[in-house]
Amino acid sequence: MLVLIRKARIVDPQSEFNGKIVDLLIEHGLIKTIAASLDVKAEQVIDIPGLHISPGWVDVFADYREPGFEHKETIESGLNAAAAGGFTNVLLGPNTQPALSTKSSIQYVAQKAKGHIVSLHPMGAITQNTDGKDLAEMMDMHTYGALAFTDGWKPVQNAGLMLKALEYVRSFKGTVIQIPLDNALSAGGLMHEGPISTSLGMAGIPALAETLMVHRDIELLRYTNSKLHISGVSTAQSLELIKKAKSEGLALSCSVTPYHLALTDEALHSYNSVYKVSPPLRSESDRQALIAGLADGTIDCIASHHRPQEWDAKAREFEYASDGMNVQENAFSIIWNAVGKQLSLEKLVQLLSINPRKIFGLPDAVIAEKNKLDFTIFTPGEKSTLSEANIKSMSRNNPFIGKELNGKVLGIINQTNVYLNQ
Predict the structure, then answer these.
(1) Pair (83, 26) in one structural domain
(2) Is the predicted pLDDT of residue 422 greater than 80, yes or no?
(3) 89 and 24 belong to one structural domain
(4) Are residues 190 and 209 located together in one domain of the fold?
(5) Is the peptide bond before 67 cis (omega within 30 degrees of 0)?
């Protein structure tokens, strides 16, 4: 089928067409022609004012809860949410039941996602069933498609195990992903430790619970000369440690969530458990440091930390409510609303697509003639509102539902398929 995209502004620093407004003709999963104007007949024409097209976005950490927690999210509903959010590729966390800690579990999720317009890349667990005791068979999982290795929401606390994991993945040039949180220092904490937690009388999680873990893992990385990605960085002190380590040439990368860019612990004045996340929402000074870290290159990419929860898991006393936000569907709008005045679109595409592809070894998606399809289409100048009636995810733990934000995702074009939001 011939598909014609009219008057699209290219946002791709790797492309010779970057910044230009062009027509694109697509056929059989390839870009056939790119020109200032094309006079051809096509079965499908996409002609939307203000349309932008970029290499397909990559979410480097999401959780679709299947198998074991299908009442929260399934692989299908999660991938539908990803498509609506403009993501053509998703790295899937292992915190299922059973956990993704065997080759058969990796095969299971890969098979469940087969044929979907969004490409799913399962991440294998570092330890057996993510219990933090014994290493999982990472080589087997790598052979059967595991793109990286992490214990996800249960970061590896044992330094000896983390050392072994970093050494193990070196044999196949793998990457270990860690959410930076020391369980001993964060135990019992409900939010960021600071003036607001004190005024609210809520137990705090100190920044030290993150920075101590970041420091430890950087030292283990230095010792092993392996490859490490820290996901969900939330403090200014962590960024300082990461920036210094990267300047030394260590194979270290990191990502930030949309909600840490947009929100602070001020949101907890509402006592609304939708704002209970891990790592917790931090101070305004931390939020500004994260935005600066995006601009100066200390932060490499974006991770939605998409963590769906059913109504019961959030509609209870704050202390007992489950962690997590479900923001993959409107991640771009959240990010663009928070950083649009500080970052260019080219920089944002670098963070959403180009950098994660390099870090995790995914194919490039340069917008050029004869290249395969893997693109996101969006309008940064248009406002959008995610309505509860139209949300694709099974869960609703998203504080931005119903709020008008800058930026709108129009859809994705991946493999031989076109998906457009209604």
Answers:
(1) no
(2) no
(3) no
(4) yes
(5) yes
d(CA 404, CA 387): 10
| Residues 177, 310 within the same domain | yes
Domain end, chosen from 312, 335, 360, is at 360
| Residue pLDDT, tens place only, 37-57 | 999 999 999 999 999 999 999
CB-based contacts of 263: which residues, under 8 Å, 6+ apart? Answer: 275, 281, 287, 399
Domain match, 291 and 399 both: no
* Cα–Cα dist 91/156, whole Å: 19
Cβ pair 413, 377 in contact under 8 A: yes
**Taking all residues of the chain, what is their mean pLDDT, rounded to a whole number?**
97
User: Phi/psi at 15 (nearest 5 deg)?
Assistant: -100, 145
Q: Cα–Cα distance between 115 and 313 in angstroms, integer?
A: 31
The pair of three-digit structure tokens given for residue 21, joined into one six-digit string: 């407004």
Report in angstroms the alpha-carbon separations of 11 from 116, 367, 372, 384. 25, 9, 17, 20
CA nearest to 157, candidates 220, 105, 69: 220
When pLDDT is averaged across residues 371-391 and rounded to a whole number, the result is 95
> Can you tell me the mean pLDDT for 102-119?
97
Amino acid at 320: Y
Chain centroid offset of residue 39 CA: 39
**In CATH, what number is assigned to the domain containing residue 376?**
2.30.40.10
Domain boundary among 360, 380, 404: 360
Residues 6+ apart with CB under 8 A from 249: none
Question: CA–CA separation, 387 vs 125, rounded Å?
Answer: 34
Position 182 pLDDT exceeds 90 = yes
What percentage of the chain carries pLDDT values higher than 90?
A: 99
CA distance 174 to 266: 38
Structure tokens at 354: 């180009």
- The residue segments making up the domain with residue 143 are 56-360
